[in-house]
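Section: Multi-chain targets

For targets with more than one molecule, the full set of components is provided together so that the structure can be written out for the assembly as a whole rather than chain by chain. Components appear in the order listed by the source. The example entry contains two components.
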Amino acid sequence: MRAPAELVSHIFRNPEAIQGFSMEDWDKLVRQARKANLLARLHALLIQAELDAGIPAVARWHFEAATTLAETHQGEMRRELRRLRALLAELEFPLVLLKGAAYVAADLPASKGRLIEDIDLLVPAERLGEVESALKHADWQRVGLPDYDRRYYRRWRYDAPQLQHLRRAMVINLHHAIVPDSARYRPDANKLRRRATEIPGFAGLTVLTSEDRILHAATLLSHDDGLSHGLRDLSDLDLLLRQAASETDFWSRLLARAEEMELGRPLFYALRYVQHFFATPVPDEVEHHLRSSEPGNATLKLMDGIYTRMLAPAHRSCTDAFMPPARAATYLRTHWLRRPPRQLLPHLVYKAFIGPYQRDPKPA
Amino acid sequence: MKLLQLPPAELRRQLATSGLWLRTGPFSLRLRSSIGSVAKGLGDLYGQFEVRNPHETFADFHVSVDPQIKLRQGLRSKVYFSFDGVAPFQPEPLDQAYPMLERGLDWCVSEHAHQYLMIHAAVVEKNDQAVILSASPGSGKSTLVAALALSGWRLLSNELALIDRKTGWIHPLPRPIRLKKDSIPLIRAFHADAYFSGISRDTANGSIAYMRPPKESVRRQHEPAKPRWIIFPKWVADGALEVLPRSKQETFQYLTQHAFNYSQLGTEGFRVCSALIKQTDCYDFQYSRLEEAVAIFDRLAASCVSTKAGN
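Its structure, encoded as tokens over all components, is:
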């Protein structure tokens, strides 16, 4: 069987296909997987499938080096979370970990081979200042931003800008919402927080329930303008879904929660593309149920054209002539979803014509 | 097949089209460039390195050095280095094309090859005992390394000491030695056969050139060596010849700060670094004349052989 142009998801769907790989295929696979930030996860998959002996000697170190890096990251992350817990123990409310940090803390399969540089924390909007000042006392500092961006963040963004540790290569993002207040799909962050559950071994730190975690990942996918980690994020979603599927009533809880939070559309798209790339098992009833969230035929065709390109690794061996318009369309769509045109238009004008000519302030 | 067996026109053709497949130490490269000075630099300096059929399909690093825009007469173009679509450096003037390639190759290795503990240091070897030479810029480290490489020491590396995490041995990466232009007459006087190329004006550090690695070092580029000494050389004009023991603790700290991936390796980095320190003697070394410096190194290597024989 001739391998397709995009090899990373091909191998996730059919790991045993590596047995028929030519050296040219290995060359392409390593390069695409590196671009997609999935080398270590691919390695984990091949080990799990007991196929790693089939990695040719010359290509092996690329996978092993990526795994080494991912393991160090996760060790660092666990240490950092413990420090953070001690630091924020004074606060009377639990901190909710999101995304990569949550996968590591809860030891989910989605942490496998995952490089994690940021800690994403969900904090009640009215407590943001309190958390930030506690962090500042412990050598976390705001990352410098150009003036326009700083104003923009404060006004429209859903998260406070990043805090960087003075000595360690670690960054904290403080969120008080999942997406901007102005966004089309706006899950209520308080609803998510209320159900968060404590992580064994990390008292005081909590993570979202499986269905909320998946809805969160789905919503982010719809709002990510660059999709620079698109396939990695989708692979996270694949692993989250496969694991959650073993919980009792998971799918019905997921659908009910999507309805309650009005997130049917993002869930529809997320399941569509995670199946496309990773052949994630989704029960027929779920697909049937989500048909009410499906867009019109023309829109769906267009979205498929855009997202199947944007989510593939950004490597020239698997992109085509439609990539630039797909990229432009994604940028516009995500910003369209984030805020009404009245806000969007001035922002895009600034970013296109004024921003590039402003000199960046010197880093503090 | 060696690179010097490729006719220059074929070398240029491969570089401009399919890419040139080249092996340096443990890494295979696929190089693309349409720039004349890059082809010349490679032809001058990498003659002894293995090249393969351009249809060889696996390479560790796919890199290119290309003009930002099409070269037109009268238009000063800048060039950029790219690692498989990623440009880690700002574009630089055309005459920096060759140095940029060398810098880019160092970057590719130091960013990815975590199967090694990678230290910013030179390595030479004699009698199966390797010396790691580490120094801050301006200490004359590269000049000394060039002199040693021309005096029967095997060059393992001038910039990147690759410590195998499993064995603790050092893997060679004997690429050209980057030297300040002022060192060229010094090295020429030291050894008439030294060959230099890729001379270019470097705005930050003055003019630089590259010395071709010795044939024997390239031939043995797959033989790792056991680390025996860590030496911090310092050239002092008219200074006395001095070899002083250096504290291991201090050296350990220095190495962790000058390793490219110490923090990326986590506790493994600590383990490899500790093992390295344990099996090496550490010295501060001051010299003013290359001949004297090389003689000291030779004596060091000989002393080790005699102790071994005495055992």
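Chain A touches chain B through 25 residues (CB under 8 Å).
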